[in-house]
Write a structure and sequence with these properties.
single chain; 442 residues; Chitinase A, domain 3; 4-stranded antiparallel sheet; 13 helices; 11 strands; 18% strand; PPIase_dom_sf; Parvulin-like PPIase
């Protein structure tokens, strides 16, 4: 997974690419089809980097675009077609233009972000993804065709914009105590109804470019359904202020959403992706991360203590041999008298036991969650696995059930309402900056 995570928000752990998957150097004996008389058409100066755009006098080069595109390509789990790659380059260029405008506006307002602050945030990203090793992340970014400078510029843009909003927008957003109390009353009245944790990718559109924006967002959907990272695409594509958080809106109730999004979300199941959804000012992609009942405890928030009992099969084992081993394994597990008896009985048949405390039920695969909810301490799930991977069961050794959920804190709810209004004003602020900008394209 590539390091496209927003440095400011919670990070998704990125792993260095598999060295075996790296491109190898072509053999010098390879059969190259080069004519004896080479006619060079035009001039090429490798030291010349023509700008792709000039934003109020600040150059955005093709190299800037290439390195930012490389971050997204590395995050995608599927091959990106040439036509999609070209659309991706155009979107990245728009993002870099917006980023330039944000940095310029912050500086014009005498809001400075020091290089030390950028480096500190960059080091935090390295710590989260590469275990405190900044050099390892530098090398990874270079290997995928990006650079530390590209990621640091993204950090600079995010810090600059956030500070600008905190000074020029947030102080002028007012939420009254009456509004918060009214919202609390509505929450209490809706106790037991569902709320939804949604991710959103939003692209602004005008009547003139709506067709092109819709085509772009359909391509994003295709990439996401092919295995692309929603977090990575949201951070690079989304024009909402939630982009820095990977598009995560948190848990919201449907009445708090625009009607177009609420209608779509109501029909969704966790893990489902829907879009494009036309709404005021643009198009959205929605991803349902989770849903829960308002102001009620959720059994999936229980914290479990588990033992995983696993039996590996030898390579080349036949089906009949595997079935015989499975039968022995199942019989042995059923005879276990709780967690204290598991280790000795597992050892007798060559099985392994791994203990783990503090596992939140909802973090486990969806197929296992309903099975574990029904278990008593000392009981096990049915066996799962395959002849290649072996078989396992999970034994429940302890459960801390979640406490009943009360109404949200007054201050937290006020902060949520304020953030929503800041987000809407930030979108208008960005539109004004684009309207006033002098941009030359090459």
């Amino acid at each position: 997974m590539a390091v496209v995570a927003s440095p400011i928000a919670a990070q998704t752990a990125a792993q260095p690419a598999d060295p075996a998957a790296q491109a190898t150097t072509p053999s010098i004996t390879g059969a190259l089809d080069i004519p004896a008389d080479v006619a060079i058409l035009g001039k090429n100066d490798p030291n010349s980097r023509k700008p792709t755009a000039v934003v109020n006098g600040q150059i955005v080069t093709g190299t800037d675009v290439d390195q930012r595109v490389a971050l997204i390509v590395a995050a995608s789990r599927s091959e990106i077609e040439p036509a999609e790659l070209q659309r991706l380059r155009m979107q990245v260029l728009r993002n870099l233009i917006d980023e330039s405008l944000q940095i310029q506006e912050a500086r014009a307002q005498q809001i400075e972000v020091s290089q030390a602050e950028v480096d500190q945030t960059y080091a935090r990203v390295a710590a989260q993804n590469f275990g405190q090793n900044v050099e390892a992340m530098d090398a990874y970014l270079t290997r995928i065709g990006s650079s530390s400078n590209s990621l640091k510029r993204q950090i600079l843009g995010e810090l600059s914009w956030q500070r600008l909003l905190r000074r020029n927008v947030a102080p002028f957003v007012n939420v009254s105590a009456e509004e918060v109390n009214e919202m609390l009353q509505r929450l209490e009245a809706s106790r037991g109804t569902e709320e939804y944790r949604l991710g959103e990718i939003w692209l602004s559109a005008t009547p003139e470019n709506a067709a092109q924006v819709e085509a772009n967002i359909n391509q994003i959907i295709e990439q996401l359904r092919g295995g692309g990272s929603f977090l990575g695409y949201a951070r690079q594509y989304s024009q909402s202020s939630t982009a820095a958080a990977g598009g995560d809106l948190g848990f919201v109730r449907l009445e708090m959403l625009p009607s177009e999004l609420a209608v779509a979300a109501r029909q969704m199941q966790p893990g489902q992706l829907v879009g494009p959804i036309a709404n005021s000012g643009g198009y959205s992609i929605l991803y349902l991360i989770d849903k829960r009942a308002v102001l009620t405890s959720d059994a999936r928030d229980a914290v479990l203590s588990l033992k995983q009992i696993s039996l590996k099969f030898e390579p080349g084992i036949t089906e009949s041999q595997a079935q015989a081993k499975l039968a022995t394994f199942t019989t042995t597990v059923q005879a276990m008298k709780g967690c204290g008896d598991a280790d000795n009985r597992a050892q007798a048949i060559g099985a392994e036991v791994v203990s783990n405390d503090g596992i939140v039920l909802r973090s486990l695969p969806e197929q296992l969650q309903p099975l574990l909810m029904e278990l008593q301490v000392g009981q096990t799930t049915p066996p799962f696995g395959s002849a290649r991977d072996g078989v396992s069961v999970l034994m429940l050794c302890g459960r801390d059930d979640p406490q009943a959920t009360g109404a949200p804190d007054f201050d937290d709810l006020m902060s949520q309402l304020e953030d929503d209004r800041v987000n809407k004003r930030a979108q208008r602020y960005m539109r004004d900056l684009r309207n006033d900008a002098v941009i030359e394209y090459n």
